[in-house]
Design brief:
CATH topology of the largest domain: Arc Repressor Mutant, subunit A
Number of domains: 2
CATH class of the largest domain: Mainly Alpha
Distance between the termini: 30 Å
Mean pLDDT: 85
Low-confidence stretches: none
Structural class: mainly alpha
CATH architecture of the largest domain: Orthogonal Bundle
Radius of gyration: 20 Å
Number of helices: 6
Shape: elongated
CATH superfamily of the largest domain: Winged helix-like DNA-binding domain superfamily/Winged helix DNA-binding domain
Helix content: 55-70%
Length: 129
């Protein structure tokens, strides 16, 4: 059953709680009662977040008896990835320019240390993806 999309992927992931829900549902199907135990909010509030994720197509709903179980549907995240990839060019270009500036024009130790920290953060971010 596919609900009409009322929220797009960008709106759905804008909320930190919904991003946590997506991580929680990424490896297993869960009913709302089990999901609610992971959050400091009411089951009704969790259900509202799940409804928004469902409307954006980010979670699959499946009825099992009287309960509804939820599971991540990662396919709509491709839209987000494609959008972000476009801007990666600018980010990579700026880092490259900064690196060349620091290495060639300014042999400043503090600046080199700052560049190393940026590289560490970038590596950590990529490793976390």
């Amino acid at each position: 059953m596919c609900a009409a999309v009322k929220h797009d992927v960008f709106q759905a992931i804008a909320d930190p709680t919904r991003r946590q829900l997506l991580k929680l549902l990424s490896d297993r199907e869960m009913p709302v009662t089990a999901i609610s135990g992971h959050f400091p909010m009411s089951r009704t509030a969790v259900s509202k977040h799940l409804r928004i994720l469902s409307e954006a197509g980010l979670v699959h709903e499946r009825k099992v008896g009287r309960e509804t179980r939820y599971l991540l549907n990662p396919q709509p995240l491709n839209e987000l990835r494609d959008w972000l990839e476009y801007f990666e060019i600018y980010w990579d270009n700026k880092l490259s320019m900064l690196k060349h500036f620091l290495e060639d024009d300014q042999p400043n130790k503090a600046a080199r240390v700052a560049l190393q920290e940026l590289n560490k953060e970038e590596k950590t971010d990529k490793d976390n993806d």
